[in-house]
Sequence to fold (188 residues):
Amino acid sequence: MKTLNHLRQELLAKRQDLHQDSSLRSELEIKISEFLNETEATCVGIYWPIKSEFDLRPLALDWCAKHPKKKLALPIVELNKPLIFGEWNQDTTLVKGPQNITEPLLDSYSSKIEPNVLIIPCLGWSKQDDRFWRIGYGGGYYDRTIAEFKKNGRPLQTVGVGYKALEVKEGAWRPQSHDQALDLMIVV
Fold:
């Protein structure tokens, strides 16, 4: 088994190559749009893309425009804590957070909000024991956040976004005790 850092480096390099394929990005866009149009969630948490992550912001804004009662949320990082979420729309003031990722500034245009669905980027992913597992960058933010929602009995559907080619087979990686399974994977 490779070290986790080595595996992450390989997955990132693969994803950067896959991200160049516009037909794959178009397929992913269609699948995510279908998911958004079918969800009954009132608030969907998305992410600000970094390091060749699929950019679903235009889709999400379009979904919100077509469904005015629905809201979007972006994560706000407090170092080594579960993520909190700020409402995101075109009027939201954005700032660079402690991880240098763009996030909402909580002010009169963006208040703290809780998503019922959380769409999460995956560096890699694995299906083991009939559950989906995400491999991220190693900070544990999404794992802590999902665990916090569960601990407090707050409903949250978790949806990973990635590429089939980034699936890590059982045996090449195993979820660790702090890893949180995802409810669904959207992959192409």
